[in-house]
Amino acid sequence: MPWLLLAAAIASEVLATTALKLSDGFAGKGWTVVVVIGYIASFVLLARALKLHMEVGVAYAVWAGAGTAAIAVIGALFLGEAMNLAKAGGILLIIGGVVLLNLAGSH
Length: 107
Prior knowledge:
- The structure is a single chain.
- The chain is mostly helical.
- The protein has one domain.
- The chain is built from four helices and no strands.
- Helix 1 (2-22) packs parallel to helix 3 (56-78).
- The model has no long low-confidence stretch (mean pLDDT 92).
């Protein structure tokens, strides 16, 4: 159950961050509402996952790392942002770091 809450928190954060880009500096009112609701939902879901005895270091690393990687990919695929070898390598390093934290946290 805490992992499902964490996945929902990540999805909410990614939605909010994507909407932040689309809000045009909060000029787009609809996207601004999505930003606010998405970030509130993300923090509430993250807090609930932590309440179910998930380790804070692991939860935050997964939340931040997965969100960062997802936003980088979304930016490249849908928002016209550049993707190069260095960025792709950085994404792989983030994923590797999160996996390592999870493995170390279970022992």
